[in-house]
Amino acid sequence: MNCYRISKYDPRYRDENGKYIVDDWTSFSDVNQEILGAILSIKEYETTEINYLTLLNKIFIQSGCKRLRIVEYENASNNSLPWYDGQMLNTNEEIALFAKDCLRELCWGKLVGKRLFIHFGYDYYMYVATQEHLEKIQSLTKENGLYCEKIMSPYFQAKDFFRYYF
């Protein structure tokens, strides 16, 4: 498995410890807040969110998976959400809706399927473990205005993948 961290953050602006050094928005809660002298609009936020969801769809299709399972699910909001631990997501639309709720920090969970592992971390990071090589994932991320770094997720352990593999 190859592990990647995908984000809207250009790796050229990281310090020697990997910390992103440009002040930028990091979550849905930043909408209507001032970032670098400008208000983050919902339209600007949604443009980036759509880039993530489009990329996620491409990675899902590329992987050859037919479905993904939600594991280690947590509802981080007081909202009644349709998700639960162990739930199978069988369509691109279901996966996109779950991912959107994760990006908006309403919930958290890992998506696991054959040859694919995806989850979202703090500060608008998406972590992917796949058999795809770096060049292919970088090409897909670039098409969607995002960046890919070959970095292991702090939430991923190979034993977890094989525990949930089906």
Brief overview:
With 166 residues, the chain is an alpha+beta fold.
Features:
single chain, about 170 residues, alpha+beta, seven-stranded antiparallel sheet, 9 strands, about 30% helix
Walk me through what this model shows.
- There is one protein chain.
- With 166 residues, this protein is an alpha+beta fold.
- It has one domain.
- The chain is built from four helices and nine strands; from the N terminus they run E-E-E-H-E-E-H-E-E-E-H-E-H.
- The chain has helices at 42-63, 92-103, 134-143, 158-164, and strands at 2-7, 34-35, 38-39, 68-75, 88-89, 107-113, 116-121, 125-130, 147-149.
- The strands form two sheets. Strands 5-4-6-7-8-1-9 form a seven-stranded antiparallel β-sheet, with helices on one face. Strands 2-3 form a two-stranded antiparallel ribbon.
- Strand 2 (34-35) and strand 3 form a beta hairpin.
- The radius of gyration is 15 Å and the shape is globular.
- It starts with a strand and ends with a helix.
